[in-house]
Amino acid sequence: MKIALLGYGKMGQMIERMAMQRGHDIVLKITVNNLDDLTKENLSKADVAIDFSTPDAVINNIYKCFEVNLPIVVGTTGWYGELQNIKNDCLASNNTLLYGSNFSVGVNLFFHLNKFLARLMNKYPEYDVQVEEIHHTQKLDAPSGTAMTIAEGIIDQLERKNEWVNELIGSQELEVVKNDQLLIESHRIENVPGTHSVLYSSEVDDIEIKHTAHNRAGFALGAVIAAEWLQNKQGFYNIADVFNFKLID
Ligand SMILES: NC(=O)C1=CN([C@@H]2O[C@H](COP(=O)(O)OP(=O)(O)OC[C@H]3O[C@@H](n4cnc5c(N)ncnc54)[C@H](OP(=O)(O)O)[C@@H]3O)[C@@H](O)[C@H]2O)C=CC1
Ligand SMILES: O=C(O)C1=N[C@H](C(=O)O)C[C@H](O)C1
């Protein structure tokens, strides 16, 4: 495949290495220093675009790909307020987009485990639950996209939680968290690639599930696999469609 990398930072550079190992060619690399190269002509040379840019840049990048009917894999987080509009525009213009808050197989297994545990916990109201995410200090968005997906999985399965609220530790103090609200605590610590935990606490014990990324290789490999999977498909997809676990919907 010929791949256009929209964003060539920590993730873009690792995706380049993974993609080349799997026999693909990188035909375009976009950073803030060469935005003029993001042209229809250059995008048309690619079979697929992979976007790991910034929350501010990603929407424009998506529409640039739509203009030339170039399938796009979106790993960038922090734009999900626009998700429904993008989905509508993607489908109305017969385009192809696959997005995911986290492309690693480990986190996608964790998403599934999280929903399974949340469904079980309906019978045990003595446990309250909260989500914690820890990331490096360059991260632009909070909560992480992964933490949002985890929280949505819990809200989907656990009847006593209806919405999530976020506290970025060290910035603003959150007001009292209501019983039907699910707290996501965000921590920013140097050099942490991404750690996510779900903690159920009762008076007598705790149950905790945790995913720790040791590096960014799992995210990068998943993004390349997603781009391969997207070949010859049309429509709007999530990384869950690639892994397609069946134990719980
Ligand atoms: N879904 C997943 O599995 C994962 C998602 N992410 C997400 O991916 C995104 C990128 O992460 P990361 O690589 O760590 O971030 P970096 O800051 O390291 O890289 C961002 C890149 O985007 C470039 N950029 C800035 N503006 C534009 C633009 N208008 N068009 C194209 N590129 C632009 C930057 O250019 P310059 O270098 O010149 O500043 C930089 O190369 C984040 O949103 C992060 O949350 C991260 C890991 C896994
Ligand atoms: O910004 C990051 O680094 C990461 N972002 C993603 C997110 O917001 O969940 C995925 C991963 O945790 C790393």
Question: How does this structure look, described?
Answer:
The protein has 249 residues and is of the alpha/beta class. It has 2 domains: 130 residues, NAD(P)-binding Rossmann-like Domain (Rossmann fold, 3-Layer(aba) Sandwich), CATH 3.40.50.720; 108 residues, 2-Layer Sandwich (Dihydrodipicolinate Reductase, domain 2), CATH 3.30.360.10. Helices cover 34% and strands 25% of the residues. Strands 2-1-3-4-5-11 form a 6-stranded parallel β-sheet, sandwiched between helices. Helix 5 packs parallel to helix 6. The protein is elongated, with a radius of gyration of 19 Å. The chain starts with a strand and ends in a 6-residue tail after the last helix. Catalyzes the conversion of 4-hydroxy-tetrahydrodipicolinate (HTPA) to tetrahydrodipicolinate. Keywords: Amino-acid biosynthesis, Cytoplasm, Diaminopimelate biosynthesis, Lysine biosynthesis, NAD, NADP, Oxidoreductase. It catalyses: (S)-2,3,4,5-tetrahydrodipicolinate + NAD(+) + H2O = (2S,4S)-4-hydroxy-2,3,4,5-tetrahydrodipicolinate + NADH + H(+); (S)-2,3,4,5-tetrahydrodipicolinate + NADP(+) + H2O = (2S,4S)-4-hydroxy-2,3,4,5-tetrahydrodipicolinate + NADPH + H(+). InterPro entries: DapB_C (IPR022663), DapB_N (IPR000846), DHDPR_bac (IPR023940), NAD(P)-bd_dom_sf (IPR036291). This is 4-hydroxy-tetrahydrodipicolinate reductase.
Please outline the helices and strands.
Blueprint: E1 2-6, H1 10-21, E2 25-30, H2 40-43, E3 48-51, H3 58-67, E4 72-74, H4 83-92, E5 96-99, H5 105-120, E6 128-135, H6 145-157, E7 163-168, E8 181-188, E9 195-201, E10 206-212, H7 217-230, E11 235-238, H8 239-243
